[in-house]
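May I ask for an example protein's residues together with how it folds?

___
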Amino acid sequence: MKTFFLLFLTLLPGLPCRAGCGPEADAALAFMNAYVDWLKVPAEEASGKPAPWMEKDGLVSAAFRAAHEELMREAEKEDPELGLGFDPVLDAQDYPESFAVDSCGDGFVVLRGAGDEWSADFAVTVKMVPSPKGWLVDGAGMIRIPEERRRQE
């Protein structure tokens, strides 16, 4: 038993950090769950586009907001009817009802879908940065997330 316990302690630092990641994971989770809730609001009741909502929310960095607005503007210019055809914050067309923290490290938080049967297969990476107000989302989905960290399934 002592050998097993020592082996467990040796392997523990190499395991990914889960729900106890800290305030950056809490902020990433709060943002993504609020974002998904906002997507469910009928268009006529919503403020129109996610960018004004993100600005009001206070959970995102100015760099994330600017990158999102630029991406949406370019997509609308390219295809006025369809735009991107998917949600860049989630990097998907379909998405789960809610999220849970899967892992974190190096300023990135991986959120995994929760609630639906298929959602455990859905993951989205969120980049977090500290600010005087707390942790801010600085990237999510395909926005400001390196290709190798996107859509970890």
